[in-house]
Amino acid sequence: MSSRRDLLRLGLAGATGLMKPRAYGQLCSQPPVDFPGSPKVSPWAVPLPIPGIAEPAERLDPVVEPGRHQRYSEFAPKKLYDFGVRQIQHRFHPELPPSAVWGYAGTVPGPTIHARYGEPVLVRMRNELPAQHVGFGLPSISTHLHNGHNASESDGYPSDFTDPGQYRDHHYPNFPAGHDPAEVMSTLWYHDHREDFTAQNVVRGLTGFYLLFDELDSGDERDANPKAFRLPSGACDIPLIFHDRAFDRDGQMAYDVFNTAGILGDRYTVNNAIQPYFQVARRKYRFRLLNGGPSRFYRFELSNGQRMVQLSNDGNMFPAPIAVQEVTLSPAERADVIIDFSNFRRGDQVFLLNRMEQTAGEGPTGRLMTPGDAVLRFDVVSDDRDDPSRIPETLRPLPRVDMSEVKQERLWRFDYLNNLWLVNGKLFDTTRLDAEVKQGSAEVWTFRNEGATWSHPIHIHFEEFQILSINGVAPGPGDVNRSRKDTVRLGPNDEIKIFMRFRDFLGRYVMHCHNVLHEDHSMMIRFDVVP
Description:
The protein is mainly β. It contains three helices and 33 strands.
């Protein structure tokens, strides 16, 4: 590791071309010069895979050590999960051979955890990966629940890793930050966060959904509780994780380990299947859109021009639903959307399109308005219009912003030098404390992009934040940025000011760019929450 770090600090590894500005698309380098392009395959050849729902374990062996976890007795787990993280063979498409991938509980994506507020859980991650692995990825893991409100020891700090044969217990207390009902979240996800190898391990397959419910977002469209949202549920509540991938001549996943800038694949996958189809009835569906990275930005639209109803930004619901023509997601961002198929006829088809063009060096690597930009096909196959679900007029109020609580203001400058990625002129060092924040205080942080060609999705662990201004302008009513967030798109020359509180737990956390190649090289800082 040290020799690799030394090479990177000297800027000798992975020289890559910078992208010219184009909306949010200026973030990635060209594929390797000898990359011939992925083998051609037929779109719409497979149904959309739906991740299975995780089954709790009856017990854990060895037993949990409560003393290793903050506030464990106060939030004693009501459910236990035991995931073996192991290598399996997976087909991304029936016309490609199996590829070696890494999966939580042996599946890609990993099992979806259904959790409820007031019902703490503990997840044991056992590293069963091959110690003598050859190829990209490091069989050493640190699992981060993005953006769980959890104690530091369960957060997936990049250097809190386990090697093959070891395990780590993650305690998720499942209460809203500050015990404030306005801080309840919905769509979270878990993924690997191993220092220096997050991008490679995520591309290998280490991602999964973690969905939180409460009495309002109850997961039951027939809920008799008059407060319940009654959003589409069950088989009509669909998690979708988007990764773009590349494959070599032999149909195996391709990855350039010397690329420090960002990777664009030439095949879209949804839930790790290349351009699948999904059969729907004539009713409303809830889709939980997640950009799993590693680097591509998306701007999603429906091919018939129909609007979607957006419920959330990241894991956080709006005060009220917003009708939108498009949804833009940088890596790690999420959006819950409702698509209503009730006006379609049986036999109709509609496509989810990616309209985001991305360029690298002097030429395009992403395409705009071509057949390849249809990511997912919806097929209307049923005349069934029984639909007890609804779209409520109101969702969740925003927490108050009280500037009198602010004890500290900080400026974070994001830049690059010789294809290394800097925050305030420094590379990440896990032993260096970059900010010490007081528990129970609020702070205002300013993000400034000092680069003119790169966009950075900035993610803060542990706490949500609210955007005060983007380039001096506050988000107004109906703006999707007028919400709580955990990841924000910082475009070229942008300056974004945010407000956040620090509550409930102590310890070390990180903030970083979620173009995970930037994170790995080394656009990340450490902050500690202290008494």
